[in-house]
Amino acid sequence: MNQNAFRYLSYGVYVISTLDQGRPTGCTANSAMQITSSPATIAVSINHDNFTNQCISDTGKFTISILSEGSDPGIIGNFGFQSGRTVNKYDATAYEMVNGLPVVSDACGYLVCEVIDKMETSTHTVFLGAVKDAEVLKGGEAMTYAYYHKVVKGKSPKAAPTYLPEEDEKETKPDGSAGAPTKRYVCQVCGYVYEGTHLPEDYKCPVCGVGADRFVEG
Question: 75-100 in b/e burial notation, b at 16+ Cβ within 10 A?
């Protein structure tokens, strides 16, 4: 089975947030979708290992901050490659409280949801949320998962529903043959690994924000 076919499905890039005993926390996600329009219902998929999963189960509420193409890519790394168990992620990200829940300020819009049901898979929980509030912030084009990979050159956290093992990340041509060899570039500040045929000169680490000059091949 060629799992790269999954990349032709359409995804966005979101920050799913809630509270940990009153402390704002959240994680990056790319699996969120509208189930019904009336009443407005949203589904999000969160890995069992993500601290946010536990917090949503405890509070019964969550927000979806919809990132735009103009959003700081560091937000994705901040919420996607660290654990809320040990890091106060919102210390490094501007936010506002809406209906008692955190929303990322640098987003094109947000949704505030109350959990009405959930479904368990072997690795993820799919939370169904009734939308209680929604607003457009900065507007602009919403960031797609394809844009994140092709333009931002980002990589999926292992907890993401769309994560592919390293052996499936290799570039392929339309005829299925192998493309140029994939190389690994490691951030010397935070350890983030970029994989691709080359590291763009203007690339910035999605976790700590340093430039390409702080990466080494390895």
Answer: bbbbbbbbebeeeebbeebebeebee
What the block records as the tokens of 179 is 């493309």
**Are residues 102 and 64 in contact, defined by beta-carbon separation less than 8 angstroms?**
no
Question: Thinking of the domain 10-136, which architecture would CATH place it in?
Answer: Roll (2.30)
Contact assessment for residue 49 and residue 84, using Cβ atoms and an 8 Å cutoff: no
Locate the domains of the chain by residue range: 10-136, 170-218
Out of 4-13, 17-26, 108-117, 120-129, pick the least confident. Answer: 4-13
Q: Higher pLDDT residue, 160 or 207?
A: 207
CATH class of the 170-218 domain in this structure = mainly beta
In the predicted structure, residue 214 carries a pLDDT above the cut 70? yes
Collapsing DSSP to helix, strand or coil, 91 comes out as: helix
85/88 Cα distance (integer angstroms):
8
Q: What is the mean pLDDT of the chain?
A: 84
**What pTM, to 2 d.p., does this model score?**
0.75
H/E stretch holding 147 reads: helix 145-147
DSSP 209: -
Residues 143, 160: Cα–Cα separation, whole Å: 16
176 pLDDT higher than 60: no
Q: Where are the beta strands (DSSP E) in 11-108?
A: 14-20, 23-29, 32-37, 40-47, 61-66, 95-98, 101-104
